[in-house]
Design a protein that fits this description.
Elements: H1 3-12, E1 30-31, H2 44-61, H3 66-87, H4 102-124, H5 140-148, E2 153-157, H6 164-169, E3 175-178
Parallel strand pairs: 1-3
Antiparallel strand pairs: 2-3
Helix pairs in contact: 1-3, 2-4, 3-4, 4-5
């Protein structure tokens, strides 16, 4: 699929139009219903989610030559910029705020994940994921499904060892927090 097709598809997503609204999938996750309920970017659950995001990005680039990496970086920038322009219109985005302001964090997170999804499809033709287990929600495809539905998967819920390595060591259920 060509990049213009991805860009067109991203324009059809209801970016954050459903934050705080009920979903048929509410019982799958922990839900928040107000921007102020999001703790901050330094909260351990948010940091853990970000570690996974970076791991997924690193895994995408493994084994690629410089030409392929350059091609993906160009596509990444185009998608991220496009989604940022679209998504910010649906929330109280504020240029003068930083990552502690939840609407800005949501838009930046959405544009980043959209770029990762587009580049993963460009490179692999699919979102390479392990066997889908309902108790393990921390996957790129599940995260993306909430963005596509107009919500913000704003953190990974985990009360144990707050490191990626610690979370991966256990087979315990892994849930998301979604706005």
């Amino acid at each position: 699929m060509k990049m213009n097709s991805y860009i067109s598809r991203f324009r059809e997503i209801p970016w954050f139009e459903n934050v705080g609204k009920p979903s048929d999938r509410d019982r799958e996750v922990f839900r928040i219903y107000d921007w102020s309920a999001w703790p901050c970017p330094e909260d351990p659950a948010v940091s853990l989610q970000n570690e996974y995001y970076l791991m997924w990005q690193e895994n995408l680039y493994v084994g690629l030559d410089e030409s392929a990496k350059d091609r993906l970086e160009e596509a990444w920038d185009k998608v991220e910029t496009t989604v940022l322009e679209i998504a910010r219109l649906n929330v109280p985005y504020d240029e003068d705020q930083d990552a502690w302001y939840a609407p800005n964090a949501a838009v930046w997170s959405g544009s980043w994940i959209a770029a990762l999804v587009a580049c993963t499809f460009l490179e692999r033709g699919k979102l390479d994921e392990e066997e889908k287990r309902p108790e393990y929600q921390w996957t790129l495809s599940n995260t993306w499904s909430w963005f596509e539905a107009g919500h913000w998967p704003c953190s990974f819920y985990w009360t144990y060892d707050q490191s990626l390595e610690g979370a991966e060591r256990t087979g315990a259920p892994k849930r998301m927090v979604v706005y």
